[in-house]
Amino acid sequence: MLCQSEADYQDKLLACGAIIVAQLRVKVLEETQFTCSAGIAHNKMLAKLVSGMYKPAQQTVVPSSSVQDLLASLPVKKMKQLGGKLGSSLQDDLGVETIGDLLSFTEEKLQEQYGVNTGFDHIIYLPTTI
């Protein structure tokens, strides 16, 4: 059996995606003389995050097993949607500096502090293929 778990299977898909993106980045460089960075992850937020962290002209893959470590040391202000007032409020009210610090709080504690309607997206996103 090639994949021991669903995470193994998903990480193999990321590896395939990384090969395709590497080929695209080479083509962009050949045809435009411009370099580009890329992030490959299981969701757009993580892919965009690592693409911005590792520039210029780099490609970063985030397998499932690395997500927790990546987020644990990530400064709150670097996380999308937490760079403004909400991020400042989290830092001031709760004394958190990293996403890892924030993860030590329960959902109930955060709802108590900020309300139940803050930050939860009920929209269902369906994956699309190219």
Automatic annotation (TrEMBL):
InterPro entries registered for this protein in UniProt: DNA/RNA_pol_sf (IPR043502), DNA_polymerase_eta (IPR052230), Rev_trsase/Diguanyl_cyclase (IPR043128), UmuC (IPR001126)
Keywords: DNA damage, DNA repair, Metal-binding, Nucleus, Transferase
Pfam families: IMS (PF00817), POLH-Rev1_HhH (PF21704)
GO molecular function, one term: transferase activity
One of the GO biological process terms: DNA damage tolerance
Subcellular location: Nucleus
Nucleus in keyword set: yes
Cellular component annotations (GO), alphabetically ordered: nucleus
Entries under PANTHER family matching the protein: DNA POLYMERASE ETA
Name the UniProt record assigns to this protein: DNA polymerase eta
The organism of origin for this protein: Zea mays
